[in-house]
């Protein structure tokens, strides 16, 4: 399965995660608030580690199986 995540980035912006998962900004922030997606802030910018997005996808696939 090819990943829509940028392969050169280790930390993604919220818009990049929105595009990769095809979710709304509201949903991505809800996932961050519920700790389903790990994130950190650098200055005023929110970043989500690419590994966190992959782990989220794997968990959702296991849940669906």
From TrEMBL:
Pfam families, per the entry: HTH_17
Domain (Helix-turn-helix) ranges: 12-60
Highest taxon listed in the record's lineage: Bacteria
Name this polypeptide is given: Helix-turn-helix domain-containing protein
